[in-house]
Amino acid sequence: MAYDNVCGERQTLLVVANRLPASAKRTGEHSWSLEMSPGGKFNLLVEKDAVSKSLAEMKCIPVFLNEVFDQYYNGYSNGILWPILHHMGLPQEYDHDTIKTFETQYDAYKKANRMFLDVIKENYKDGDIVWCQDYHLMFLPQYLKEYNNKIKVGWFLHSPFPSSEIYKTLPSRSELLRSVLAADLISFHTYDFARHFVNTCTRILGVEGTQEGVVYQGRVTRVVVLPMGIDPNRFIKTCKLPEVIQQMNELKDRFSGKKVILGVDRLDMIKGIPQKYLGFEKFLDENPNWRDKIVLVQIAVPTRNEVPEYQKLKNQVHRLVGRINGRFGSVSSLPIHHMDCSVDSNYLCALYAISDVMLVTSLRDGLNLVSHEFVACQEAKRGVLILSEFAGAGQSLGAGALLVNPWNVTEVSSAIKKALNMPYEERETRHRVNFKYVKTHSAEKWGFDFLSELNDAFDESELQIRKIPHELPQQDVIQRYSLSNNRLIILGFYGTLTEPRNSLSKEMDLKLNPELKETLKALCNDPKTTVVVLSRSGKNILDKNFGEYKIWLAAENGMFLKHTTEEWVTNMPQNMNLDWVDGLKNVFKYFTDRTPRSFFEASKTSLVWNYEYADVEFGRAQARDLLQYLWAGPISNASAEVVRGKYSVEVHAIGVTKEPEIGHILGEIVHKKAMTTPIDYVFCSGYFLEKDEDIYTFFESEILSPKLSHETRSKSSSSNHSLEKKVSLNVLDLKQENYFSTAIGQARTKARYVVDSSHNVVNLLHKLAVANTTTTSVKKPNV
Ligand SMILES: O=P(O)(O)OC[C@H]1O[C@H](O[C@H]2O[C@H](CO)[C@@H](O)[C@H](O)[C@H]2O)[C@H](O)[C@@H](O)[C@@H]1O
Ligand SMILES: O=c1ccn([C@@H]2O[C@H](COP(=O)(O)OP(=O)(O)O)[C@@H](O)[C@H]2O)c(=O)[nH]1
C-alpha cells in the first residue's frame, strides 16, 4: 500500500495482520472472487496460486501457514494470549499434557511469526514501513529488526493490555515483551492499556518507563495511545442506499409497536453476552409494563468454534435465551431474538439505524467498533448507546453513552430503563457528542497518525542510536592486550564483578561472581598486568571477596587502597567530618526494612540504599520519600552530598568520587610495584553512577595532554598508613587505540564503549586471561 507522509513523500506501507481484509468465494474450479470486508476470513489452505493471484489485484499478499495454523491461532493466540490479555487468566486445566501442548503451541506461534517474516523479506524494499497488527504477531518486531534494523517497525495492539499482575503469570512473559519492544512505535487504544504495558515492562524486565515510552537497549521505544476508528462515511452512505432503506422499512414493520434493543457481538467470553441477558431479564422482571413492548435482537457471530471454551459459552448462552424467552415470551412475541450468525454489512446498517438502544456489555474489549458503527448509523433516530466501561470505546464515546459495569445486573437493567425513557433532547445532545467524535476520529486519521508517529519515533531513535557509544570491539581489546607490555585493568565491583541479577543471596550480600575465580587469578598472576578493583564498597567487603587474589583494592571510591598482600593505606583528608554517617544509618535501615528486597550498605564515608531488586514502582516511591527526608535537613550542615542513582540513593562525603582519586592510586601502584615501563594499555569498566563516570574521561585527558607522564604528585607512605610521596617517572604512555573504557548497561555514558551486562565483561576478562601467554590453564566460565 502506498502512503504519502507529512512531508509529501511516498512511502510503501506493509500492513501485516493475521487476517486478510477480504472474504473469498469460489467462482470456478480454480478461481476465487475476493471481496474487501472488515472481518474477512478464509481458509488459506485452498489453492495457493489462484488465491494469491486474486489477492495481488487487491494489493494483498497471503502468508500460507499450513500445518502450524491451528496450534498458532486456535492454540497459542486464542487459547493462551487472548484470555491473558482480557484478564481471564490462563486455562485452569494444568497438567503434564497441557503443559506439553502449550509448549507445542508456543513453538508454532514463533514459527508462524517467522513465516510472516519470510514473506515480508520477499517484498520489503529500503524505506518501507512495516506495521504489525495485534497479539498474533508479537515476535515479528524483533524478527524484523534482527533481519534489518533499518526497517521502520510499528506494532498496534487491538486488544486490551492487562495489568502486570495478570500478565506476569504468562510463562513466556519476558520474551514476548522484549520482542515487541524491538519496534520503534507501540500503540494501544487507551491510556489504561498503555499504562499497563509500560508498568509491566518496568516490573518484569526491570527497564525504565518514561513519559515517552520504555527505555530498552539504550533507546526509547515510543508508546502512544491512538484509538482506532471506522470509516464513518461508508456507514452514512450505506444507510441512504435504497435497498438498505427497504430493509429498514421491513424491520420497522416486523417490530412495529416495539422498542428495539440491539446487540452485535462475536460469541466470545469477553463480550459479556450472558451478563447482557441477565441484565435484560432483570429489567423484564422489574418492569412488567415493558414486556410486550420491547425486543432484544442479538447477532451472535460464531467465532473460534475450535476452541473448547467457546463451545461451552454457546451452550450457556442458549440455555439463558431459552429460560428468558420461556419466562417472558408469548405466542405472538419473544423478548430475545438470538441469532448464531453473521449478517451482511447492508443488513447490519439497517439494524443499527432502526434500533432504539444499542447494548454493549463487554467484560473487556480493546475498542468495540460496533459502538462506533451504531453511532454513525443513528443520524435519523438518535438512539441511545449503553456501553460497558470496560470496552476501550468507553473512553471515547463515554461522554454521550450511558456507561455501565456489565457485572452489575442492576446497573444494566436501570440503564435500559433510562435509555427507553430518555427524552428526545437528551438523546439528541448525547448523539451529537458521539457522532462528532466518530466523524473526526476515523480509521483513516488513525492510520495517518500512527504512521507519522512511527516516522517520527524512528528518526528520533536513529538520533539516539548515533549518540550511543559503540559496542565494545572485543577482538581489538584482546589483540591490543596481547601486544602491550604494561597493562592496567580497572574494574568496578557492584554490577561489574558481583553475582548476576536475581541470584543475590537472601541477605543481599555482595558477592564476587564465582565464574570469575580462575579468570581473575590468571589475570592477577600475570606480571605484565595490574588489576585494580575501584569500588564504592567498604574495606571489609572488598577484603572478603578478593582476599585470595594478588590484586589492588581501592575501597570507598579510592579513599582507601591496598595490595592484598599488604595493609590498607588511606588517602582521606585528615579533618573530614563524618559524624553524619552514624546518624543516618537508622534512616537507611528504616527504608530498607520497609522495602522488600532492598538493601543498604554503610561504609566509613558513605551510605547507599539500593532498590534494584525491589518492586521498581514501590522502590521509586520510597526513594522519593527518602530524598525528601534527606533534603529536609539532617545533613544540611554536613559536608555530605546526596546522589540519586538509577535504583539507589547515596549520601557520601563531599569529594569522595572515583575520578579525583585515580591519579593518587596510580602513583601509589607505580611506586609500590617499582614499575620501570609506563602503562601502555588501559581497560576500565564499571556499572558506575554518573558522577563517577569522570574516571573514563580522566584517561581521555591523559591521552590528549599527559600530566602523569612526567611527574605524579602523590601522597604516599605505607609506614604511616597514608599516601604522601612524589613519584617521578613516566606513569602513562597511553595511545588512543590502547584505551578501552566500557560502561555496563548505560544508554548515556562518558565511556567510549558499552556492553549490555556484566556477563559481557566477565566473558571478555576470560578471553584476556586466555590471551595471556604466561598462563596455561584457565577454565572457561559458563556465561
Ligand atoms: O476473529 P479473530 O481473528 O479471532 O479476532 C478477533 C477480532 O479481532 C479484532 O478485534 C479487535 O480489534 C478491534 C479493532 O481494533 C477492537 O474493537 C476489538 O475490541 C478487538 O477485539 C478484529 O478487528 C476483528 O475483526 C476480529 O474478529
Ligand atoms: O455480522 C456481523 C457482525 C459484525 N461485523 C463486524 O465485526 C466487527 C466487530 O468489531 P468489534 O471491534 O466490535 O469487535 P471484535 O469482534 O473485533 O472483537 C465490526 O466491524 C462489525 O461491523 C460483521 O462484519 N458482521
UniProtKB/TrEMBL annotation:
InterPro entries: Glyco_trans_20, Trehalose_PPase. Keywords: Glycosyltransferase, Transferase. GO terms for cellular component: cytosol. One of its GO terms (molecular function) is trehalose-phosphatase activity. Its EC number is 2.4.1.15. In the N-terminal section; belongs to the glycosyltransferase 20 family. In the C-terminal section; belongs to the trehalose phosphatase family. This is alpha,alpha-trehalose-phosphate synthase (UDP-forming). It comes from Arabidopsis suecica (Swedish thale-cress).
